[in-house]
Write a structure and sequence with these properties.
The complex is a heterodimer of chains A (352) and B (335). Chain A has 2 domains: 3-120 and 295-315, NAD(P)-binding Rossmann-like Domain (Rossmann fold); 121-291 and 325-337, Dihydrodipicolinate Reductase, domain 2 (2-Layer Sandwich), CATH 3.30.360. Chain A has helices at residues 12-23, 53-57, 70-82, 97-108, 125-136, 165-168, 172-188, 274-277, 293-306, 316-332, 334-339, 341-351, and strands at residues 3-8, 27-33, 42-44, 47-50, 63-66, 86-90, 115-118, 142-150, 191-199, 210-217, 222-228, 235-242, 245-250, 262-268, 283-288. Chain A contains 12 helices and 15 strands. In chain A, helix 4 packs antiparallel against helix 10 (316-332). With 335 residues, chain B is α/β, with parallel strands linked by helices. The chains are: A alpha/beta (352), B alpha/beta (335).
Chain lengths: 352, 335
Amino acid sequence: MNLKVGIVGLGKMGLIRKRVLEDHPSADVVAVCDPTLEGLPSREGGLLQTTDYREVLDEDLDVLFACTPNNVTAEVVVAGIEKGLHIFCEKPPGRDLTDTRSIVEAASNKPDIKIKFGFNHRYHDNVIQAHALLESERLGKLLWMRGVYGKSGGVGFEEGWRSDRRTAGGGILLDQGIHMLDLFRLFAGEFNDVRSMVSNSYWPIEIEDNAFALLRNQEGVVAVLHSSSTHWKHTFNLDLCFTEGHLTLEGILSSTGSYGPEMLIVSRRQFEDETFALGKPRQEVVYFDTDRSWEREIQEFVDCIVHDKPIEVGTLDDALKTMELVYKIYAADELWRHASTAGEELNRSEKS
Amino acid sequence: MRRVVIQDDLREAQIRPDSGFNTYIELLERDLEVFLADTVLVELDVCPACGSPDAFPDFEKMRISYVRCGQCRTCYASPRPEMEALDQFYAESDAIQYWNSSVAERTASARKQYIFSPRATWVLETAGVHQQEDGLLVDFYTKYPVYLEELKTKGSFSRILIRKPAVSIDELVAVEGFEVANKIEEGTVSVVAAFEVIERLFDPLAFMQHIHRLLRPGGLVFLTTLSISGFDLSILRENARNLLPPTHLTLLSYEGIHRLIERGGFSLVEFSTPGQLDVALVLDALQRDPEIALPPVIDSALRRRGENVHEDLQDFLQKANLSSHVWIAAQKLAS
């Protein structure tokens, strides 16, 4: 029997999830909800279409996909959890830590359901192969990482919901930089030392358009992040330096292709041939031509439900820890901490 | 699917020094003359890559005729010697013995750095990504223990066996410290490596099907070969010094490789052409014979531009899968 799936939110992400689910042999999309749908509710070919997410929850569902703006994510996810549904939630897990913790609390009462968050980058080929290299220890011990994730904003950027403080909660760091932080955690675990500068330098919005963070874990691995919505050339670049070599993850396949071809650049230290190599070691550039990340992510989620296996990627713990890291970065900049609602939220959360 | 581009500083002379290579070619010509005098050659009815009967004459090299497949453009020797005769040739050829005992010895250090270590790393890392690194590895036709040593010391394969692709000759190439297998149980192998093997076989498809039977589901095969779709071979054809029968009986095209992999029951996980020498080989051929005709833009890039343009062109050839040096990794599909 196929899993019956409801999707709340049919924006860009919701439509991607719907396409992948419709192609999946073990899932049927039976209900969708989006405020922009017209002439609703309707039921065509067994598919309920509505503008009210509660009507989706009233259907006979197994799984709920929450692909909503950040301000309603927690509300929708908590309602789904209370109905006993398995949950797939896009990142970020709400606007702030209060939202995320409300999801954690609701989930603590339903230990049997599967909850997965859409930290999709972990399913990209360059990330998978870089992680396999790290795990194999063939490049030695990780020393440092440097990640740049930037987008140009573009026409009308300041008018979208992602630029609205009340809807989004945070700016580019929460929206896109969170993926890079998730990858930092994948490669180096948890960071206990966090410093930052967060700014709003260009766009007429109340949230950050640039975040610079300097992080260090217990083992001394240092990570540098620059997350930006004033990076006029779309950029994804992550360097990992090891004792015996170096990896660069350059580009990430996307629907528009604007982040360039997806590459993993592998070079190995050549100290013994220093005079020969002159700091220009042999380099292998691995290109990946197909983006199978969406299919892999959904496949893993469906597998976990069907075979009652624990979620391994994008867990509730991943969501909470990555969200905490986002808010530690906001808080680490004294100026931003006091100037932003992020700081206010963090103060509130620390007091509670 | 992956494709790999390698940026390094390999030079032709490091792996094929002129003096040794010239002697090798002279010996090979002599060996071939004797070999062809009393060897029965068999005409191929169909293309060894795609199975099409549509073919037309292409060129002749060292008394061997090559035809071109009208469908996939693979270039192949037809008529050609059968596998048993080929095995005997490979075992007894003075040229091959000279190469192994002299040229390979002299260039061992460069070969390790530029050829064998990268291959070992490629196999280990790709097998790791596909969770095939802990089982049985079978290497076909290994002549170079350096590469096997690297697999052994850096990898976690439970066993490494070496084997000849054909069974007509019992005398296998022994490599110290490695087991030579006469028989391998079907469906038990995680990884098969066959570097520069497929082009020298009488029947490449039968070989791929044999590998398919040996591999367990999800198992990987790693192949390297020379492709006629590559820059230097497509320009130089019979004038390419490194195109030498009978070790190069089938020069698969880009399309032919895809068809052969598919017909063998595999799915490609990597198609790369990380060659670094195409441009250098054409430049070298131009020095030897300035009359070689080139398309105008290539002629201009090679004869009238500098080293930077040559490097950029070689880089582009790799990126566009247009180098003649091909790396293939493919996974066994469930039959």
